[in-house]
Amino acid sequence: MLRSLMLAVLIALAGCATPPRGQQVSAVAQDTWRQVDQQLIAASKSAIGQAEVYARGSMEHWRVLVYERTEAEFIPWFSSYWTQEWMAVKVSWYAASAKGEADSASNRLALYLQEQYRERVLEPVAVEIDPEAIRAAATSYYVRLLNQQAQVIAQRHQIPDELMNRRLHGITAINLGPPAARNASLYEMVHTEPLNTLPAYAALIDHVNKAADTGAGPSDAVIAAVAQRTSEKIEAQFATRGAASAAAAVAGKAVGALISVGVAGVRAVIHEGERPEMEAQIRKSLSAAFDEAWFKSLKHPLSGVLAPVYYLDEEIEGNLVEAELANQAVALPDIKP
Prior knowledge:
Layout: H1 2-17, H2 30-79, H3 81-96, H4 104-126, H5 131-156, H6 161-169, E1 172-175, E2 183-185, H7 186-190, H8 199-211, H9 218-251, H10 253-299, H11 307-325
Antiparallel strand pairs: 1-2
């Protein structure tokens, strides 16, 4: 009997706590939604500021690691006697097979040096951190901060979660379609974890990658001037080396071999004497070129590590401002499961 009475009480309480089926969520005034929209724009700007601080700190860390590895691995390798000799062989072969193409030798040497720079510096550093990872993390951080602020805004105006989610679903965050999969609402952005599982996010990253200048990666910018200077220096040395080779040929096989070895030894000694100055020049060139590329990677609004964040902010603000200027009713589309 007591058990039956308790069950009846619990059922009655549950009935009181559950709203009638089909009950509508309380409406929100249009003026309130306008305030919400303005506060979302402000929240996006605030999130951008924090994402910029994060990205700059991460890029500074990446730059320090690249500098350290450049100093320890690339510069000693590049300035060594045998590397310079090997590059001389390469430049000679490039020049012989250039078929009259201007700057062919230096361009092909640049490709070789870019490959070496990636293998010796950028790829080892990328095991810990690189600009693409920073870009992804900064975007996720921005979206997470914006979602937190959206919840605060909803609580401030006493807007039920269902209505706030529908409002976020009515705000376009990515608009790169067709197809429709390349578009995403703000609701989809803040409720997708991880972001890279959202097709529209992949479209955004592809959009940013295409906006980058062709061949403008950090390694390209760092190496191009160095390769040009190295190629010109090696080509200028060919006349001296050609005279030594002619002397060796005239002297005969045995003596000629000794002359060749002697000339190589003299070049090695001269090279070691010039090496500190060479390394100082390389260091200066690399630092200047890398700093320029680093700044572009950090700040460029279309292709830098913050480009996805800037795109999202511009799209969200543009969508909200356009609706307000047109005096359109706030969109509250249903969210499909």
